[in-house]
Amino acid sequence: MDVLGMVGLIGAVVLLIYLTMKGINIIIAAILCSIVIAITGGLNLETALMDNYMSGFTSYFASWFLVFLLGAIFGKIMQETKSAESIAQWIKKVIGEKRAVLAVVAAAAIMTYGGVSLFVVGFAIYPIAVSLFRAANLPHRFIPGALVFGSISFTMTSPGSPEIQNIIPTEFFGTTPTAGGWIGVLMGIFIMVVGGLWLGSMVRKASRKGEDFALPSASSIKANEELAAALAQEQTEEKQADLPNIIVSILPLVLVIVILNILGQFMNPTTALLIAMTVGIIVACLTMHRFLKEFWDSLAVGTQNALVALSNTCGVVGFGSVAAQVSAFDGLVNGLVNLPGPPLLGLALGVSIICAITGSASGGLGIALPILAPIYMSQGLDPGAMHRLAALGSGGLDSMPHNGYVVTTVRTICGESHKRAYTPILYLSVILPMAAMFIAVILYSIL
To answer: What global pTM score does this model have?
Structure first.
């Protein structure tokens, strides 16, 4: 066993988590950590960076650029037409402040399952969440947990989802976005219901202990600006008239889901997703054109957002590509493949661990599946089960503290700290999805 290589691999992952939580750019952090792995793993530094790192970076970029691009543009159009705000306001009105937690989770889930970018959802819903939590006097520190849980814990891993974590496995297992059958649907419902009840219980318990709505003393300027905006919005009743109708607002989301899952049965799912996103963008622009003041600016901003999000993901994929070259990584993969128990367990854990290493669900899938899929496909296992377990596996340990969306939601959007706000995320977006993954392994293995 390569002890030094294993120490370097673990140390590089810990360093990546530390640097990311310190606010260091993920690409710079990934390169620094790749150097650590190369040195401790006995790799040629020039080859590791110029070949292994850049091959992983550019390969992922080429494969998924159009998906990220159209997804970011779709999210920006939904934001600029105020349809995202319309959906959030409608849910706020229907569910009400007495069920503030449910309202926030539902708003995030509906939009992300409809294909809207995670970051757009976070910024769009936060002011609504502040309004609801303030009115119900619920602790502000639970807002990041509600946003993250509603955005990623079950929507991105459930059958039929247009999120990239549900699309990447189709490329390796020859499946469709609905792969996994009723077990996949059951696991999505399980995470949604148990997580919703768990989050509600945590909030009620904190309230009974005397916690109330209060921003942390070190809250960022951004969070205070969003709070002011939310309160102003709450006091301005006529603003409702400036939002598009709820049916018109939600129509593009419905079309994306329906078109993806119909066309995905007859053509490459990635192509089907691109068509679905394009239709969603066109329909949103046509039906809500009066709200879209700067169409070309929206495209430009959406493109910039796509490049930033994709480049960050490519950075961690490049890091993972370097890690995959050291003998310690091979030993880790072999250990997972030869685990006692159901063969599917090794696949699920392999994806989970690699997603934990990268701090990215899509990035982890991009590294894990080219290595693991051929191994398990050769064993004649059910492709649908492998697809769903890979998706479920990507949605657990990826939400470690260094995950890009977690960091952005906790710090930038909500102005909170990991110390105050991360515990609910750990329970709902790490522990619960991992429990669902293990249950799914058992069900797929015996049924």
So the answer is: 0.84
